[in-house]
User: Which sequence fits this backbone?
């Protein structure tokens, strides 16, 4: 006859074994977040913005800018989420609704889970804005997707971004709006150069150019800068980012340059991570009365600084 204490010990062991097996099975079944999950979450915010705009302003359609990038990744989606969150803070302040704490883009190895958390915050804040405006009937159910890419996520983020601006009576992105993003990139590349060489022996003497410029020239310079950043990615043994061969359409607007600025900021953050530079991207400083020529010069300054990085790295070794 087996003693009762042994029966009890055997029962406890069996229960622990079953719990362990159950946890292992659930961990195996539960997949890591993907671009499908991010898209489904941000889509709820997008549909909620449609309801808010229709009931608050009578707006039924908001145009969204085109992108022709084909292989955007986690870092780009993260940066566009940050842009949406910045716009939400601006809108909440305008509505006299206490804004959530500022979230910044810092140099980390971005994962899908990071972006999904930002999607959830956007979704939650859009709902909070709706409640503040006494608007109800928000969509709640996530769709189940299987083939959404980060390009799709970025496009949907841009749609949410433009709808947020429309709700805040900021329908268009101006030259000044686009311009204000590039000094952030200048600060980022300077932080990398300073980290590599604390003596700060990089040059900042690029002379301004006189005359006018077209947005096409600015866009092409942005693409040239992204090729320069790919050179730096190779220098740091990172995978290159596919760069478009030209603009998405002929009638370029400042919003097209703004989108490129966000892609560039994302890629600079990845370079900061690779170079062990720990600075965060500064906030955009509002400016006024900027032209395409001003934008072109800012992008050229970024290129001028970026192209000094490999030489400076070799010099200080």
Assistant:
């Amino acid at each position: 006859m087996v003693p009762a204490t042994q029966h009890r010990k055997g029962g406890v062991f069996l229960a622990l074994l079953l719990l362990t097996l159950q946890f292992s099975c659930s961990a195996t079944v539960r997949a890591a977040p993907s671009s499908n999950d991010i898209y489904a979450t941000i889509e709820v915010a997008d549909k909620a913005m449609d309801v808010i705009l229709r009931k608050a302003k009578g707006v039924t359609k908001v145009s969204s800018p085109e992108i022709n990038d084909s292989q955007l990744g986690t870092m780009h989606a993260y940066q566009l989420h940050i842009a949406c969150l910045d716009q939400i803070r601006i809108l909440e302040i305008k509505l006299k609704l206490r804004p959530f704490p500022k979230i910044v883009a810092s140099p980390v190895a971005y994962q899908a889970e990071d972006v999904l958390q930002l999607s959830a915050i956007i979704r939650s804040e859009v709902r909070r804005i709706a409640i503040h405006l006494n608007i109800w009937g928000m969509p709640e159910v996530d769709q189940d997707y299987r083939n959404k890419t980060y390009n799709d996520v970025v496009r949907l983020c841009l749609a949410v971004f433009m709808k947020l601006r429309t709700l805040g009576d900021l329908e268009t992105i101006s030259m000044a709006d686009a311009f204000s993003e590039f000094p952030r990139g200048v600060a980022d590349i300077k932080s990398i150069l300073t980290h590599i060489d604390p003596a700060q022996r990089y040059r900042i003497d690029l002379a301004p150019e006189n005359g006018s410029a077209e947005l096409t020239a600015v866009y092409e310079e942005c693409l040239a800068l992204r090729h320069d950043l790919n050179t730096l990615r190779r220098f740091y043994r990172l995978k290159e980012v596919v760069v478009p061969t030209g603009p998405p359409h002929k009638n370029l607007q400042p919003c097209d340059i703004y989108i490129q600025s966000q892609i560039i900021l994302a890629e600079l953050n990845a370079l900061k991570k690779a170079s062990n530079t720990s600075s965060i991207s500064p906030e955009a400083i509002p400016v006024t009365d900027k032209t395409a020529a001003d934008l072109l010069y800012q992008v050229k300054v970024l290129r001028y600084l970026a192209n000094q990085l490999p030489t400076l790295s070799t010099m200080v070794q």
Q: What stands out?
A: Residues 175-316 form one domain.
